[in-house]
Design goal:
Length: 529
């Protein structure tokens, strides 16, 4: 444990707190935690889902056995234990896939099934994936055939398998005998930087387990509590803050394969969760349904929102209409679940802050010159500790920790810290749009748009949206002698970008407003919009 005296970057300033050395962190792995619960609570439900035929459940023993069988199969099809991509919509099989990888001692690389071919190819190659587990189809979308075609050109991919068929294969129920350490790599979570292409943040078993463990404790979760968190499992908000959080304390994770307001309300009514995790956009959808009221939420004691700045008026509306307590949490792919409020907190803390700094990390607020600010003053939030990512994976397979000389990771978020270690969000330094709780990085979208032959330059920015929080807008300058057809440009973007990244508002301009150093003044474009 580093002390303030040993580390000059951690001065005795009011706006800093050391929590990386707080005792009580777990030392088991993701797979080890499941194995323990399968031994101690074999018949207890681990997963539940509401179907047309009724409520279905998977016990801890069944989940562990299926995951163990998959681990053994993975050892056969991926003998070099290279990373495994998991490409599926939310499902029981996705969860079995994740735990199968954890038990086999191979890293999970979640990829959205809605990602374009170009995005998928980049992620498979950059992560040096050896095997792919993909859903066969989803509705009218043929996922497996498309992924096989994409992966055929990626060196090192030895197998692309149907996720469901692979899980169903008969194999040894004992799974892999490979020893897995808490410090081993567990998850490569793709996140974008302001320089463009998505890059994988590497999280260890220790980081994922204890981020989830601390979150469960902050939410006052108890064994047997049912938790509905229908966020995408290919994002840490679904995998770490959802599944792993729930299954670290012996809870029940409610699986919703495709989120709609109707499917969520049906799950709440049929399975009666005690805790519900949703981004504000999801809550808005629920509140617009006729007949939704306190009786629908009689089992729910807490709703946890996050992933974006939460409107306090929305929180007040939710609490009044549904008769529940609302909490907020905050984190990043590089450092999941950094903060969380508590059910006992005042409405001011629960509705107008990011909550308190959680254990396992050190926190400090700095000004633009790198100096630690006083409590109550605004600055950029920095974090460090064992629950922060190991680093970004470079193209050569090495890791870039993306920290300074003393291990501090810049979050890119402007915050204020008070005397009780409560953080309040003030804004973002990074050029990022948060649409429905999912990050969209303009640099990545700009690189795609600028490749179109009729475009000389593109500037992408977020504009307010009542439903999504923000939506993606783009200003473009035509290439010399070219005429921009917005419909053609939108179709081009649809081929290259996942749906949430595509601009929906367009501005065709002769020039961009700029600073004296040439940087585009996007706030002026936003105002012009």
């Amino acid at each position: 444990m580093t002390t303030k005296d040993q580390d000059p970057s951690f001065p005795a300033s009011p706006s800093s707190v050391m929590l990386s050395g707080v005792p009580g962190l777990r030392t088991d792995t993701v797979g080890g935690a499941l194995r323990l619960l399968a031994e101690t609570s074999p018949t207890a439900p681990a997963l539940m889902s509401s179907t047309e035929s009724g409520v279905e459940a998977v016990t801890y023993f069944e989940l562990y056995e299926k995951s163990s069988r998959l681990a053994a199969t993975l050892a056969e099809i991926n003998p070099d234990r290279k990373r495994v991509a998991l490409i599926s919509f939310n499902s029981v099989n996705w969860i079995i896939g994740m735990y199968g990888c954890a038990l086999a001692g191979v890293s999970v690389v979640p990829i959205a099934p809605s990602a374009t071919d170009e995005e998928t190819a980049h992620q498979l190659e950059a992560a040096d994936v050896g095997a792919v587990l993909a859903i066969k189809s989803y509705g009218v979308h043929e996922v497996l055939d498309r992924i096989r075609s994409v992966a055929s050109s990626i060196p090192g991919v030895v197998a692309v398998c149907d996720l469901g068929e692979t899980i169903a294969r008969q194999s040894s129920p004992t799974g892999s005998t490979v020893a897995v350490s808490p410090e081993d790599e567990f998850l490569l979570q793709y996140t974008s930087g302001t320089t463009g292409k998505p890059k994988p943040a590497v999280l260890s078993h220790f980081a994922a387990m204890n981020s989830a463990h601390n979150f469960a404790q902050a939410c006052r979760a108890a064994a047997g509590d049912r938790w509905l968190n229908p966020l995408p499992l290919h994002h840490v908000g679904g995998s770490v803050a959802g599944v792993i959080t729930c299954l670290t304390y012996g809870g029940v994770y409610i699986v919703v394969e495709q989120f709609t307001a109707e499917s969520a309300v049906r799950a709440i009514r049929d399975i009666q969760p005690a805790l519900v995790g949703m981004v504000p956009t999801m809550l808005l959808d629920l509140l617009e349904l006729p007949g939704v009221g306190p009786s629908s939420f009689r089992s729910v004691r807490t709703v946890i929102g996050g992933a974006t700045a939460v409107d306090p008026h929305l929180i007040e509306r939710v609490e009044q209409l549904l008769g529940i307590t609302f909490m907020v949490s905050y984190g990043q792919s590089e450092a999941p679940i950094l903060t969380c409020s508590s059910p006992e907190d005042t409405p001011m803390v629960r509705t107008r802050s990011l909550g308190r700094c959680l254990p396992g990390r050190d926190y400090v607020i700095r000004d633009k010159n790198g100096h630690t600010v006083n409590r109550g003053q605004e600055g950029e939030l920095y974090v460090r500790g064992p629950l922060v990512m190991t680093g970004y994976l470079r193209d050569d397979g090495t890791l870039n920790p993306a920290t300074d000389a003393n291990g501090w990771l810049a979050t890119g978020d402007l915050c204020v810290m008070d005397d009780d270690n409560v953080l309040t969000f003030r804004g973002r330094l990074r050029d990022v749009i948060i649409r429905g709780g999912v990050n969209v990085y303009p640099a990545e979208v700009e690189a795609v748009l600028s490749a179109h032959p009729t475009i000389s330059e593109a500037a992408v920015f977020g504009v307010p949206d009542d439903r999504w929080g923000e939506r993606v807008a783009a200003a473009v300058i035509p290439a010399t002698g070219a005429a921009v057809d917005v419909r053609e440009l939108a179709a081009f973007a649809a081929e290259k970008l996942a749906g949430h990244k595509r601009p929906v508002d367009w501005l065709v301009v002769d020039e961009m407003p700029r600073t004296s150093t040439g940087k585009v003044r996007k706030h002026l474009l936003r105002d012009k919009h």
